[in-house]
Write a structure and sequence with these properties.
- It is a single chain.
- The protein is mainly alpha-helical.
- It has two domains: about 200 residues, Nucleotidyltransferase, domain 5 (2-Layer Sandwich), CATH 3.30.420; about 80 residues, no CATH class.
- It is about 50% helix and about 10% strand.
- It is built from 14 helices and four strands.
- A hairpin with a 6-residue loop joins β1 and β2.
- α1 crosses α2, α8 packs across α9 and α10 packs antiparallel against α11.
- The protein is globular.
């Protein structure tokens, strides 16, 4: 979903896509509407249709829409972390502590969890990186066009896609035109092809992979190869997740060896790029940073207990005693 203030300028756009087939199921544009009423309607859709995962662009009024959903979805027994795209789930391997926190049942979570993590919800467009407009309009657009060009079905969306032009070195809509639907469509394809930990949202990765195939009729050999690739990729994800949380050096070496064996068997699709060495380097850096942080915390704890045991409580201001200082003595 691409958001706006719905006051007669840019549209709010909603695009619904089937992850099995990549078919466009529903499209909507909302140019003038009451934003509170619209937020209530979106909430009712998510409550009624349990298999929808919403990826909402976090700009303009998107943050307000997300705030409303974070407030209301739990009252209907719906977990916002499972129904709305968020970086806590997507970056589970980068910040495992917060991911561990949301894996608890909703009734056991801290009451302020949706406030503390509200900024992680939605797709926040950045200047560079995977969330940049350049990335969306290059890799994601190319992949979406190759895989789902004949599955769009909606005239307005087709017109916006085919109306894109090169403006000052970047892909954009022509003057007087819109690309709101294109953004909504591309966000879905970004989530399907580049989103991580999709199973937490209830998205079966095997179904997604079965949808991303060539449009020509598959032979029995091709079907078998595709199935083998699904199994390999699923095992790769499982092993990588295990390695991310493993501390035993021997086990880490064994898991890394298995990862490299699996990596040699993966056949990259057109437009798909990744480097196992780069992933391993990032993972090792994260583990080292965690160890340093833990070591520093442990040292501070040891220093505190050492000072307490020796009666060293800082500046005692002339108090010659091995007891802890009183409040009166501390404020002298």
């Amino acid at each position: 979903m691409d958001t706006s203030d719905a006051s007669g300028g840019d549209d709010i756009s909603l695009v619904l896509v089937d992850v099995d087939t990549l078919d466009t199921i529903a499209v909507g544009t909302y140019n003038e509407t009451n934003l509170i009423t619209f937020a209530e309607w979106v909430c009712s859709i998510l409550v009624s249709y349990k298999n929808i995962t919403a990826i909402i662009e976090r700009r303009s009024t998107g943050s307000s829409l997300l705030d409303y959903l974070l407030l209301m979805l739990p009252t209907f027994g719906e977990d916002p972390f499972q129904r709305l795209f968020n970086r806590v789930v997507n970056d589970y391997d980068e910040v495992p502590e917060r991911y561990k926190e949301i894996k608890q049942p909703m009734n056991r979570r801290s009451s302020d969890i949706y406030v503390r993590y509200k900024k992680t919800f939605g797709f926040a467009t950045a200047a560079t990186g995977y969330a940049s407009r350049t990335e969306i309009y290059s890799t994601t657009l190319q992949n979406a066009a190759k895989r789902a060009c004949d599955k769009v079905y909606d005239k307005s969306l087709i017109d916006q896609i085919t109306g894109l032009i090169n403006k000052n070195g970047r892909i954009d809509h022509a003057d007087g035109e819109h690309d709101d639907l294109v953004i909504g469509w591309l966000l879905v394809h970004w989530l399907i092809t580049q989103g991580k930990n999709l199973s937490f949202y209830g998205i079966d990765i095997k179904r997604v992979m079965s949808a991303i195939v060539t449009k020509t009729e598959e032979s029995w050999t091709d079907m078998r190869l595709r199935h083998e690739q699904q199994v390999i990729r699923e095992r790769f994800e499982v092993v990588f997740n295990q390695l991310s949380g493993e501390q035993d050096e021997y086990v880490c070496q064994r898991l890394e060896h298995e990862l490299r064996m699996l990596d040699r068997q993966i056949i990259l699709e057109s437009g798909e790029t990744y480097s196992l060495d780069s992933l391993m380097s990032q993972l090792k850096d994260k583990k080292q940073n965690k160890r340093r942080a833990y070591s520093k915390q442990q040292q501070q704890s040891n220093d505190y207990h050492s000072n307490y045991a020796t009666g060293n409580y800082g500046d005692t201001s002339g108090v010659l005693s091995d007891r802890p200082m009183t409040a009166r003595e501390l404020i002298r």
